[in-house]
Every structure is written in C-alpha cells, then in structure tokens.
Fold this sequence. Notes:
Blueprint: H1 3-15, H2 29-45, E1 56-60, E2 66-70, E3 76-77, E4 91-94, H3 95-98, E5 99-103, H4 109-116, E6 123-126, E7 144-145, E8 154-155, E9 160-163, E10 173-175, E11 180-182, E12 186-191, H5 196-202, H6 206-214, H7 225-229, E13 232-235, H8 238-285, H9 299-315, E14 327-331, E15 334-339, E16 342-345, E17 359-362, E18 367-371, E19 390-394, H10 396-400, E20 410-412, H11 413-420, E21 424-425, E22 430-433, E23 441-443, E24 451-453, E25 457-462, H12 468-486, H13 498-501, E26 505-508, H14 511-530
Parallel strand pairs: 6-11, 19-24
Antiparallel strand pairs: 1-2, 2-3, 4-13, 5-12, 6-7, 8-11, 9-10, 9-12, 14-15, 15-16, 17-26, 18-25, 19-20, 21-24, 22-23, 22-25
Amino acid sequence: MNAQQLKNSILQMAVQGKLVPQDPNDEPASVLLERIRKEKEQLIKEGKIKKEKNPSYIFRGADNTPYEKIGNQEPVSIADEVPFDIPDSWEWCRLFSVNDMYTGNSINETEKKLKYTGLSSGYYYIGTKDVSFTQTIDYDNGVRIPTDNDKFRIAPKDSILLCVEGGSAGRKIAFTNQDVCFGNKLCCFVSYGIDYKFLFFYLQSPMFQSAFKENTTGIIGGVSVNVLRNMFLPVPPLSEQKRIVTEVVKYLPLIEEYDLKHTELDELNNSFPEHLKKSILQLAIQGKLVEQDPNDEPASVLLEKIHTEKERLIKEGRIKRDNNESVIFRRDNSHYEKQGCFERCIDDELPFDIPNSWKWIRLKDIGIYKKGPFGSSLTKSMFVPKGQNTVKVYEQKNAIQKNHTLGDYYITQKYFDEKMRGFTVSPGDIIVSCAGTIGETYVLPDNIEPGIINQALMKMTIYAPINIDYFLMYFDYVLKQSTKDYSNGSAIKNIPPFEIFKKLLLPLPPLNEQEKIIKRIRELNVLCNDL
C-alpha cells in the first residue's frame, strides 16, 4: 500500500463514520441540517442568495431508509442511490444544500496582460495552474484584479477551490487564505454550516472522487457545477466533524513520513538486484566469491605462458617489444614493480588484497589496444555503398547493441589499403564504445564482415591465455569506475588516455579459478534477476 492508498483508506473511513466513535451526546446531523435550511431561507429573504428551483430535502423514513423530497413531489426512496450506510446520527444531503457553489471568470491573455498584470494591489487572480497537486495556491503570480471591479466573482477566505475541468479536474483542490478572484475552471465552495475542513477531506475521499469521475464528460473532461451540486454528501454531527478533522490532521504528517519511507523502500527494492550484482563482482575480483583450490595451477605459471605468447607474437612481427615493460612481484608481503634496473613499491596503487595464488598485472601485459582513426581521416564523405571491393566500418551501435550486422557504412578497398589497415578488426577482437555511452563491449564472432573500427570505438585483442569472460567482467564493472574517476566524477565523456588505460591493474587468478568465478557469477545473476 502506497501513501496515497493509505490516505484514501483513512479518508474513506472518515466519511463512512468509521474513523472516530459516535458520541450519543452529540447534536444529531438532522438538527444541523435543519439549522442550515433556516439560515438559507433567511439569506434568500435578504436577497443574498437565490432560491433553489427544485429544493430537495433528504430524510430517514420510519424504517431508517433515506428518502428525498424534491419540491412538491412525493418523497422517493434513494436507498439504491446512496453509496454506503452511515451511522444513525448522520444524514445524507446534496452538496448544494449546505454550500454556495459557483465557478469563477475567464480572462484572456491580452486582457490579462493589458489590465491586470503588474498591479500592486487588488485581489489575486487564481487560475487552475496556480492550484498545485500538493493543495497549495500560488497567489503571487503577477495577476491582480482591482477591488472595485464587479466583473469577477470572489472566493472568500477559508473557502475551497476545486478544479472541475481539464486534466487535473477533481484532483486539484486547496483552501483560500484570503479573498481571491478565480478562473472559470475552478469551483468555489462556501459552506453554510459544515466544517470546511471536513468538506475539504470529503472532496478528496475515494467516494467523491469516484462519483466525480463517473460524471466526467466532454473532450477535455470535466463536471458541470449543476451536476456537482447534486452529488451526495454524508453529514455527521458537527462535533463529530471536528473530531474527524482532528484525527485526519493527526495522520497527515505520518502519511507524509510513510510516503518518504515507502519511496525509499521502492528505490531500494528496484536498485537492490543491481547493487547485489556489483557486490558479487567485487567479491569475485577480490578472490572471495569461490574458494581457492591448492591444486590449481597458480597465476605465476599463467604469467609465464603469457610471457611466452608475447615473445612469439614479437618474433612474428605482430606486436612490438615494449621498451618500458615491467613486472609486478611480491616481496615481504608487499608488491613491487620492476622496470629495467629500477623497482618501486606499488602497495599504494593496489585497491585491495588478493589471494596468494593470484597475481597483479597491467592491461598492457595481456593484449593489444587500438583506438579508432582520427576524425578527419574517416568522414561520411568517404563512405560508399556496399560492394565487392568495400570494407565495413563498425560503429558504436555494434558494441552497444552487441550486433555486428548493424550499420551500412563502407569504405573502398583502396582507401583501406592506403590508410585504414591498422584499424582492422578480426573475429575474437573486442570492440568497446569510447564516447557517450562508455565501456560497452562486444566480442566479434567468427562470421563478421571484414572491417575497421570508427572514431568512437576501441578494439582490444587479448592474446593472453586467460578467460575472456573473466576479463570482460573485470572490464565492464571495474574499469568503467576507473574511467569515471578519470572524468573527475562527472558524466563520463571519454575513455582515459592510452598511457593511463594500459597501466590499469588487473587481478589475475589461476585459469581454472577464473572459470569457476564466471560460472558462479552466472548462477548468482539468475537469482538476482529473480529478485
């Protein structure tokens, strides 16, 4: 149950006589309504209000059934019309019986600007837009009506304004804390003797809102004042009205607090699976998700294999030897990095501890990374229709949507041979979105078209014998954070420069443990998705 549903329940109980106990010592509502009728007759005699064309009077029969007498007609049972039973001390009436109800006056924009905008005195003019859904009124909207102007109706202080036309009909409602002029889509309620706060809560109750909705007509939606006037109002004794108001007012701050807590809970429920996934990944890269197996081949052996593979690729001319190559090793429970004859402690760089069977490496040790061509070297003017001697240009959407078939940009084979060969992608390469939507990855399958990456992509060719899914898991959830840190916490606009990117650290488990980690993450992600 959300806050609005809770408030509706309380209001419905209030208007049905179920929120506070009845007091047999209260003056019954029938006496209150009789007093209001006499007051209205006096106002009619004084010419302050008009006489009703078809005045109605609702009373209880000998069998406690509600009857209505309209004008000189015979009383008719309305037991099938009233929405629910009420306590014996209560009575039913029509809204017009206990309220003066009327809409305000329209004002066109030209007239408003020329006559009524910028005045320093007069009545504030309140339109529908000035009544908020939080039941407040924006008085100081720059529009005022001179007090000597008899064109506009007045809503007196402590009256109720209800929107009766448009998208917010029935839902925008507020008290006036001063005399105001008001628009023609607002209806003013001036009570003859009903507690105006009780009436205010009644107009928000599910019973009234349902009746209002049922009577809504027209293209823009609304309820005419004549229809509104004839809607039912359950009337408690005046003393009970005040007790109901006191009780509802007591609940309102609690409902607001409940709303805040309920919103927080919804946000927590919505975000919990993703936060849980991130926690699982954090445990995974720290070596805390699965148990280490002493029989696993340690990561140090895997590093030797990586070194052997690099030497092979250097001999074949596929990669160049790194003159700044470094090695990370442990000594006396600290981590050092050796580059040539120079070594330094890097404990301050390491984000967390890893198991003894793991090793820290840098990204440059396990792959080749290449950003797309400089902007002016690949423009739309160079694109040609797909043909026999064309080469596909892969775009960000291929990485983001993980679909190599998307896109229809191609360059000629000639331009590829002359300028673009260094940006070639091959099956097994990972393409990465590098601008706007940062860090989305896609492993190119075996059946891709020959192609190159565009300016907004980076390609990663991982030559090390490591589990690609483990590498991508680390990249997607940890290196994105590094990218965010590089952007100083602002919206991520680009991936870090290569000299920073290639030096990013990767915790390397034994190969067998990498596979167990990925298997466990997949199992737990299924459970997270079920949440």
